[in-house]
Write a structure and sequence with these properties.
Largest interface: A-C, 45 and 39 residues
CATH superfamily of chain B: P-loop containing nucleotide triphosphate hydrolases
Number of strands of chain A: 2
CATH topology of chain B: Rossmann fold
Oligomer: heterotrimer
Distance between the termini of chain A: 49 Å
Order of helices and strands of chain B: EEEEHEEHEHHHEHEHEEHH
Strand order of the largest sheet of chain B: 7-8-9-4-10-11
Number of strands of chain B: 11
Structural class of chain B: alpha/beta
Shape of chain B: globular
Largest sheet of chain A: 2 strands, antiparallel
CATH architecture of chain B: 3-Layer(aba) Sandwich
Number of helices of chain A: 11
Number of domains of chain A: 1
Radius of gyration of chain A: 19 Å
Strand content of chain B: 15-25%
CATH class of chain B: Alpha Beta
Structural class of chain A: mainly alpha
Strand content of chain A: under 5%
Shape of chain A: globular
Chains: A mainly alpha (290), B alpha/beta (248), C mainly alpha (333)
Radius of gyration of chain B: 18 Å
Helix content of chain A: over 70%
Number of domains of chain B: 1
Order of helices and strands of chain A: HHHHEEHHHHHHH
């Protein structure tokens, strides 16, 4: 491969890897929104928190693999805690109350993280087996990013199985398309909400662990990556998983090629893309009218 | 002349057909009732006429003009007003402020940013006159959300009429009212719609037969019959399809 | 009757306090008060959109920043620019930004409206950081000239480095802005605005155009946010990405409005006062302002969703009910 082509290919894979991470965050956000009507602004902070959990587990046990498995689970449990204690009590006060509440939660999580771990960037080492480069037909490519893509695909398959093969998944899909219907079916909604919130946070947790070795763990992570995930959900259409997937990948590519050609202004591309999509389709790419 | 006319009006909700070729003719100055069992498509018919939905096929004419697909605010400006089955007032504004919004709309005062609204004497006077006519003057300063059911329905109806439309569509104005409240509401509508065209959707047969000049019966999205109350009462199809179950 | 005589006296007292404030409380608290006046105006401008129309924006910092950067850039690059035109440029910059965005954002509502603003707010923050040659990047634009307030042939009042003179300029402009916005809510248009908050569908059926109405409110809200940002920039003689465009600049007026009560015009002003006192106190004991603010937000949403003014109104109603029942009891006994 000549250098230019290999550069394009490398940036493409970079973009897909970042897109997959975005999708992990955005999918949780969009499912929670579709099901419960809540846009969880604390989602970005929860994503970041998982990175810290993983850092802590590695610091205590020395095992990246343990962190990779346990940190997202811990994050999911934390999400369930948030849902039970906070979300449930303000269901009645409308979307303004929910947005403000989750904004408050996000600020508290961020504040607490700074109390416990400080503000500096915490580096994270990955095991040797996924370190270094691999040769892809003449192109030297970091293994870890391929590992991210692989892991995200595994999670994606798991999600599809969960959504299409389990009772919970069927309820969730039904609820996303028609919230009132599920209420009428006599399903124990509070438990379903709790599980959905937990799974959503678990997904964000996986993303948090996946991105940590690349970007390191620091409080700004929530803003930097979380903001992109929010833009994905708005652009893809609230509640649409397909929309979240397509837009995540587009944003991943926009961001990686953008950095190549416009270095400084890559984040601007996403907002412009969002503005164009919303100007044509106010409810997002795959959004349905509310 | 027909003030309102629909020609071959169809509507479906992503495949679920609700209206099948409705040809409705409303004569100027009449009080026309649309009746029919639940799910006959009455409210959908209203919504396609008043711009909430765009009909999937067919046309709507108002004063001879094609108004198919007009947005609600445009219809309001050319003289069509409506009320809602579910009370749809401004709950945190007082009865006075509710009516005043309608009066302001009637006078086309929209983007006035330079005058204190409380100092517009004519508007205040006209609003109060309206409140007196509809017996809400004692509730002048009560937020609409705190009015009794009957009073809030009266407010709902009077808002539809305060813009002084030529054609008024009332969607089940008596729903949930007690006998007395219904009686008062009917009297109110008689008084307020003198010389205007009124179309009502109604379940209460006493209301329908006491108020309407003509009746259209809707059944499964089609017009079963149209005619004077007596003709409708005697119509065998209508009896079979509808009145039969209600034992009128 | 009592109320009619008390009201002018209260206003007069307030005016006297405002005039002698610098003499009474010294420079430090005068500056604290200027900050309060700026953020109170900003919070009211945000609440014109939030409380009166039900539109939540997570990106109003872009208007606040547009005002600040507009004025700062004008003063830096245009020699001999007078004060009022410079402030006017900041005001117009914010207004123009709102005008450009209005056709896009008024088509969506609710959560999407909030999130689009979050994204645009972030966009302007990044632009201010990256377009270093224009905005000065992280350092921002500082120490730009601040002309004296002059009425040709009459007076010339220096402002740069004179906090007391600046105080008078700030409170006059902020006071005027507050009065204009208050008047705005009392016009026929203001009534339509409240109608949209309560029942958008009905407003449509009365014959008002929703998107155009929202657009005007949006522009008013943006322009006055910009004016607040412009005075803020002059006050510090500095505009920077973090100080004028950061996420906290978008969130703090929302928090102030929530704490004070979004349902009332003056609520956000009380909210700003509480907010400032808390910030001042927190700063003394800890630098975890974010944490404290987050906790306050959560507590307000969970336990007092209509804010201070809401809580006061509820208490008033209870008190009236109590006195009424007491009077009744006395009557019967």
């Amino acid at each position: 491969m000549d250098p230019t082509t290999s550069m394009y290919v490398a940036q493409g894979i970079h973009g897909i890897a970042y897109g997959m991470v975005l999708f992990l965050i955005a999918s949780g956000l969009t499912i929670i929104f579709g099901m419960m009507g809540i846009l969880n602004l604390a989602h970005a902070a929860i994503f970041m928190l998982s990175g810290y959990f993983c850092y802590q587990i590695i610091a205590m046990t020395g095992s990246f693999w343990l962190g990779l498995v346990l940190a997202p689970i811990g994050t999911g449990i934390f999400g369930i805690f948030l849902e039970r204690v906070f979300m449930r009590s303000i269901r009645a006060s409308g979307h303004l109350g929910e947005l403000i509440l989750t904004l408050g939660l996000s600020m508290v999580i961020l504040g607490l993280v700074k109390v416990f771990w400080g503000t500096q960037s915490l580096p994270m080492q990955v095991p040797e087996i996924i370190q270094g480069m691999v040769n892809l037909g003449g192109l030297e490519y970091p293994i870890y990013r391929l590992f991210i893509i692989g892991m995200s695909l595994v999670v994606l398959v798991l999600m599809v199985l969960l959504l299409y093969k389990t009772r919970l998944g069927k309820i969730v899909r039904a609820a996303v398309s028609d919230r009132d219907m599920v209420n009428a079916l006599g399903i124990n909604i509070p438990v379903v909400f709790m599980l959905v919130f937990g799974v959503g946070c678990w997904l964000a947790g996986i993303a948090g662990v996946a991105i940590a070795p690349i970007l390191t763990v620091f409080p700004g992570l929530a803003d930097q990556v979380g903001m992109d995930a929010f833009i994905v959900v708005v652009t893809g259409g609230f509640g649409s998983l397909a929309g979240a997937f397509v837009v995540s990948i587009i944003f991943g590519l926009l961001s990686s090629y953008g950095i190549q050609f416009l270095s400084q202004l890559a984040p601007v591309l996403m907002v412009i893309f969002m503005a164009i999509v919303l100007a044509i389709r106010p409810n997002g790419l795959f959004g349905v009218k509310e | 002349m027909n003030i309102l006319e629909t020609k071959d009006l169809h509507h479906d909700f992503s495949g679920l057909k609700v209206l099948f070729g409705i040809n409705l003719q409303i004569e100027e100055g009449e009080r026309h009732a649309v009746i029919g069992p639940n799910g006959a498509g009455k409210t959908t018919l209203f919504n396609t006429i008043t711009g909430t939905y765009h009909p999937s096929k067919g046309k709507v004419f108002f004063k001879g003009k094609d108004i198919t697909g007009y947005k609600p605010h445009k219809l309001a400006r050319i003289g069509m007003g409506r009320s809602f089955q579910i009370t749809s007032t401004f709950t945190r504004l007082t009865a006075f402020q509710n009516i005043r919004l309608a009066i302001l709309a009637k006078h086309g005062i929209r983007f006035n940013l330079f005058r204190h609204v409380d100092k517009m004497k004519d508007i205040t006077r006209e609003t109060e006159k309206m409140l007196e006519r509809v017996n809400l003057i004692n509730e002048r300063n009560v937020p609409a959300g705190l009015l009794s059911y009957g009073k809030s329905r009266a407010l709902e109806i009077s808002m539809a009429m305060a813009t002084d439309p030529e054609l008024i569509l009332l969607d089940e104005f008596a729903a949930g009212m007690s006998r007395d409240e219904t009686h008062n509401a009917v009297a109110l509508i008689r008084k307020m719609t003198e010389g205007k065209t009124v179309v009502i959707i109604e379940h209460d047969m006493d209301v329908v037969f006491s108020l309407a000049d003509r009746i259209t019966v809707l059944h499964y999205g089609k017009i079963l019959a149209t005619g004077k109350p007596d003709d409708i009462r005697d119509n065998q199809d209508v009896k079979d399809a509808y009145l039969g179950d209600l034992q009128v | 009757m009592m109320k009619k005589t008390i009201k002018p006296i209260l206003w007069l007292a307030l005016l006297v306090i405002l005039i002698f404030f610098p003499k009474l409380f010294g420079v430090y608290y005068t500056n604290v008060f200027v900050t309060f006046a700026i953020f109170a105006t900003y919070a009211v401008a945000v609440n014109v959109l939030l409380g009166y129309t039900g539109l939540l924006s997570f990106g109003h910092a872009m208007f606040f920043g547009a005002g600040g950067y507009g004025t700062a850039l004008a003063l830096k690059h245009i020699d001999g620019l007078a004060l009022m035109p410079a402030i006017g440029i900041g005001f117009l910059a914010a207004m123009l930004l709102a005008l450009v965005l209005a056709p896009l954002v008024t088509r969506v509502s609710g959560t999407a409206f909030a999130m689009i603003h979050l994204a645009f707010g972030q966009l302007f923050y990044i632009l201010a950081l990256k377009l270093r040659h224009i905005t000065g990047g992280e350092d921002g634009i500082g120490n730009f000239p601040i002309p004296a307030f002059t009425i040709p042939g009459l007076i010339s009042i220096p402002l740069k480095g004179d906090p007391v003179n600046f105080y008078y300029l700030a409170i006059v402009i902020m006071g005027l802005s507050l009065w204009l916005m208050w008047f705005f809510t009392k016009t026929p248009f203001g009534q339509i605005q409240v109608g949209i908050r309560d029942n958008e569908k009905r407003i449509d059926y009365l014959g008002y155009k929703i998107p155009q109405t929202k657009a005007i409110i949006y522009v008013v809200s943006g322009a006055f946010s910009g004016l607040a940002g412009c005075i803020y920039g002059l006050f510090h003689n500095l505009v920077s990405a973090d100080g004028s465009l950061g996420a906290m600049i978008s969130f703090s007026p929302i928090i102030a409005a929530m704490v004070g009560g979004v349902g009332s015009f003056f609520g956000p002003i009380w909210g700003t006062a509480v907010f400032q006192v808390i910030e001042e106190l927190t700063h003394r004991f800890t630098d975890r302002v974010e944490l404290v603010m987050g906790v306050i937000l959560i507590l307000v949403v969970m336990f007092a969703p209509s804010g201070i003014t809401g809580a006061v109104n509820t208490m008033k109603m209870k008190w009236h009910a109590y006195t009424a029942s007491k009077a009744k009891m006395e009557k019967t006994s």
